[in-house]
Structure prediction request, 238 residues.
Amino acid sequence: MHNIFYPSKNDNKKIYIAVLAKGIDIKAKDIDLEYRKSQEYNFFNNINFDVNKAIFMHQVHKDNIVKIDENNINLFGGRERLVENTDALITNLKNTPLIVQTADCVPIILYCDESKSIAAIHSGWRGTVQNIVSKTIDLMIKEYNANLSKMYAYIGPYIALKDYEVGDEVAVHFQNKTMMNNKWHIDNGLEVKKQLLDCGVLENNIELSNLNTYDEVFYSYRRDGVQVGRILTVAILL
Prediction:
């Protein structure tokens, strides 16, 4: 598949990370649920995992975090059995795909090599303001004794600063911002990176994607408006 992207620093031997984009052969407005379903099925079939066992979230731009373990994993799976009202998942279960869905927001994957635990986080500007990344890290430390010096963070494709115009009420919360044509523009990914650094994640262990979701190969709410398509960022502890 030509619409799959991978982090450059992660070798997919301990944790599999991939980004499923839209591709350039179809417009976002033309995508229906059946097309999206077939693309996702083909992707998971390619990596030999069952999409119906992947853990999706009903994301609500808040700071709710859910731990996936043996006690609740059977409650979830696929798009029909979502983790409701959640924007971050953590687990130490192997072979359990965690999914972040985006169309301009920032997807973050965390992996602690020492504790063998992972997180999948959705951080729109509201999630960033609510420090969902640092709260997720705190929970990983509490639940798994995660070691920040052994933590790798992947900040996946998100909308670039040049394409992300916001109002004063949003810009006031961000340090990574600039004025363009008398309008504020923010870099949500850089803001997330700052939060990771403030938590104690080592800079050399943070990978920030340079892919811009406003580009045609991705889904973008800013570019196309309401649509059924979503970028999937997948993380699987192997």
